[in-house]
Amino acid sequence: MPHSASPPETPRIIYDLGANNGDDIPYYLLKADKVVAVEANPALAAGIRERFAAELASGRLAVENCVLVERGRGTSVPFHLHRRRHILSRFAPPAPQERDDFETVELPALDTSTLLARHGAPWYVKIDVEGYDQVILRELFECGVRPPFVSAESHDIEVFALLVAMGQYRAFNLVDGETVPTRYRSHPIATRTGSVDYSFPPHSAGPFGTDIDRPWLAPAEFATLLALVGMGWKDIHATSELEPDPTFKPSPEGYLRERLITRLTPRPLRRFFGPSLRRY
What letter does residue 185 receive in the DSSP assignment? Predict the structure, then answer.
């Protein structure tokens, strides 16, 4: 009997929502078949197109220069460009005492459902849109989309609550933005062609999935971890593809030990601490 052809493999598409200057894109290109970068700032979007011209030409990268919004917002919206630090530009209105730091411009808008229909089902979605993460995350779930991997910057508990209640995720992890370039320097990551060492630049989102060097936690244990470390420049990761570590329990002593080792020990010596770096 003739053998039936295997079904085509679903393409792995990564959505970089809040791509900024594109520093996360080289990592995502190593991980996925296609990367969709969404950046509102016209100058930064143009820089991404110039920097990754070959990937754009090959179809491995798509760049959307727009403000990502929820449905019903229209085709253009006011966006607030920070005058000195482009990473602080935002769609959400700045605080009154900070308004002089921003220039407000009208930019094209695109809602989440239209973006996904245009480019395909996501494998991983990174959300970093300065004060609007929880809105986009909720919109994603209301569209019926629950990516195998998702992350969002978390300045309050709402992101975690949405991932549990609406996303129904049961495995969580945390990436601390401040320590990404030191903790994940020359860090082994999994690609389609094998493992390679990769260094994450400052202000990048860092790794996701199995590339994160910490145990995945169940919701109750992760809530304990958040109580220990607090909110801020931290990305909460969730997945439906991995199981939480049932043996791990966060503790204040473990968290303090991990912070001291990471901050005070030169990276070449950290391997001698073994599992200590994976225990909070």
Answer: T
Averaged over successive runs of 10 residues, the pLDDT of the chain (280 residues) comes to 58 97 98 97 97 98 96 91 89 90 95 96 95 94 97 93 97 94 94 94 96 96 91 94 93 63 53 48
pLDDT digit string, tens, across residues 194-243: 999 999 999 899 999 999 999 999 999 999 999 988 888 899 999 999 99
Six-digit token pair at 186? Answer: 């020359």
Burial class (CB in 10 A: 0-12, 13-18, 19+), 42: middle
Cα gap 70→75, rounded to integer Å? 11
CA–CA gap between residue 52 and residue 209 (Å, rounded):
24
Kindly write down the DSSP assignment for every residue of 131-144, as one continuous string: S-HHHHHHHHHHTT
| Integer Cα distance of 111 and 151 in angstroms | 18
Query: In whole angstroms, what is the distance from residue 238 CA to residue 32 CA?
Result: 18
Instruction: Kindly report each contact of residues 159-167 with a partner whose C-beta sits within 8 Å and lies 24 or more positions away, as own/partner.
Output: 159/133, 159/134, 159/236, 160/222, 160/223, 160/226, 160/236, 162/134, 162/137, 162/138, 163/137, 163/236, 163/238, 164/219, 166/138, 166/141, 166/142, 167/137, 167/141, 167/238
- The sign one gets for the Cα dihedral 127, 132, 133, 135 is negative
- Give the pTM: 0.89
Q: What gap in Å lies between CA 169 and CA 160, rounded to an integer?
A: 10
Pairing mode, if any, of strands 149-153 and 234-239?
antiparallel
Distances (CA, A) of 250 to 48, 220, 273, 280: 39, 10, 18, 5
Which class for 25: exposed (0-12), middle (13-18), buried (19 or more C-beta within 10 A)? buried
